[in-house]
Give the backbone structure.
Amino acid sequence: MPLPRGLPIVDHHCHLAPSGDGLRAVERFVAHGGTDLFVATQAYEPRVPLSVDDYRRQFETTIDLVGRIRNETSARAYAVVAPYPVDLVRAAGEVGLPAAVELHEASLELAGRLIRDRRAVALGEVGWPHFPVAPELSDAARRLFRRALGVARESACPVVVHADDLDGAGYRELAREAAAAGVPPGKVVKHYVREATGPDLAQGIGRSYLARRATTRAALGEAPPWFLETDYLDDPTRPGAVLDLATVPRRAREIADDPRGGSDRLWVPFVDSVEQVYGFRPGSGEA
């Protein structure tokens, strides 16, 4: 069965690297029917960034990749930038925790300026380590996350959250922190969500679901905001991790071909949720 006419196919969270497949992966995405990519920044060098200039170079690499996608492929792409929360742990081991905190906060401010200059569309990934760390590191990460929410408020942009898996209490706490910072919960998106959660349990927080078959099918009945993502890493040592970049268009095609139906529900992650959270419609030229 054909997909609904005019439906964009959007991967809400992936990574691309000059040293990886890069635009070849994008061409694979396009060949399977993909149209739009939200490209989150990542470290492109072996060592953790240890200066604001390191982060500036990293963010500019992401923005340049997005420009190349737009200019050299038929896909549309949008940059998402921020210092990765786990960087704090690695940087603290190199320069000490106070200096690592200062660097992280300055890099959040840099990301905010790039967003206000309309060179990126969201602040992310921000949050806290997804594994146990020393209490002083955990406390620092949560303070920095609150500052990230402040930067998002000042920049009037969405926030893409990296964290451990959240239960109902975790989502309630995240919604409280967002509201306290003046950020509507609907402008906050928890990425790498592995099971259908629903807007009530999530307290209105957006869910960016890993586009696995069972999760995709289970999420179809949910109200926005929710998205599908691959979290594709573009790492030559881990080919196809987390999911291959062709996965989201493949899932859309599987839904269209499924006799149980549901293809009309794909407007929710690919259009309605993007409009609600990011304020533009994929393909409109407004981003």
